[in-house]
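Question thread 4412

I'm putting together a teaching handout and wanted feedback from people who do this every day. The idea is simple: show students a protein as raw sequence, then show them the structure tokens that encode its fold, then repeat with a second protein so they can compare. Below is the first pair exactly as I plan to print it.
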Amino acid sequence: MIETSYQSSPIMVVETPKAVPFVLANAFTSDPFGGNPAAIVFLDSDLSSETLLNISKNFNQPMTTFILPSDVQDTENLSRSYRVRWFTTVTEVVICGHGTLAAAGVIFALAKVPSSVQVLNFVAKNGAKLTSRKVDNRVEITLPSTLVQPLPSDEEARWNQLCEEQMGRRH
């Protein structure tokens, strides 16, 4: 007689308070498999940076854009404002044009705003302001600009070394 025993391995159960709506979208294209992909996640409350990063890892897209309606809204119903954050699979980024453009396209395409709304204002965690406009059948975006300043010499040397390591030396 052969005796066997079986012990199941522990199962990890993660309880989430609720599901959040999301869309996988591509900016700069009308081809569903072209352009720059991004996951667009619509939040109704703040989540921790750690949670947002883990969600981004799960999507495994070049960019995940998190959208949260702002407390400040246009009373004339001509624009809507959102807080926005962008994450790759490894870190939060300061700004992402294609992620914002994709988010605006999804908001307009899925009628997440009244048809009278033609402008979407996005405010990043660092205070940067991005504006998207619906123009005919396309979406335009205005990105913030900053003055370019030279790097300190030690920082420039570090960047040069990193570029050489990644792209090879140029002779």
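The second pair follows. I'd like the answer to focus on this one:
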Amino acid sequence: RFPFTMLVLQKAIKMVWELPDVMRVAYAFVLVMLCWMALWSFGVSGIVAMPIPNCGQWWLVLALSVSLFWTGAVLSNTVHVIVSGMVFLVLIHGGQAAASMPPKPLLKSLQYAVTTSFGSICYGSLFTAAIRTLRWEVCDLLARVSWCEIFNYQLIACHLFTPFHSLYLISD
């Protein structure tokens, strides 16, 4: 199994490296995510600095954390769809220089990702964002408990994180 997996990964990496346009799109999405994180951090710091009563800060930070994780998952999954679309076009047409290859295949793949597939990308990313936020909150709760309660919380965390980890393995 392992040698076959390594062979498949080597072929996939070689194919993606031969598509420099795909790498440029991935870098552009990384830049967009960095800009979103900078804007998000200003928003969170503003909420933390404001005196909001009745645990309002906690709810706002929770909502912003869902938005951060959701945006990151949407951008990441959009890049996955673009890359898989380009790889599909290259494989189905027999190479990037083939005569049957459509003009501007990267734009076709990008258009497919942000139109036809975008709803599915957003919907699927919402679940991973909710799971990551819940995991983040549980980790925060575990960091605040006293040492005598840590054993009970570790049992809870083990039961919570095992299904989350299996979902990550399935979805990624």
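Top answer:
Good format. For the second protein you could add a caption like this: The chain has six helices and no strands. The two ends are 19 Å apart (CA to CA).
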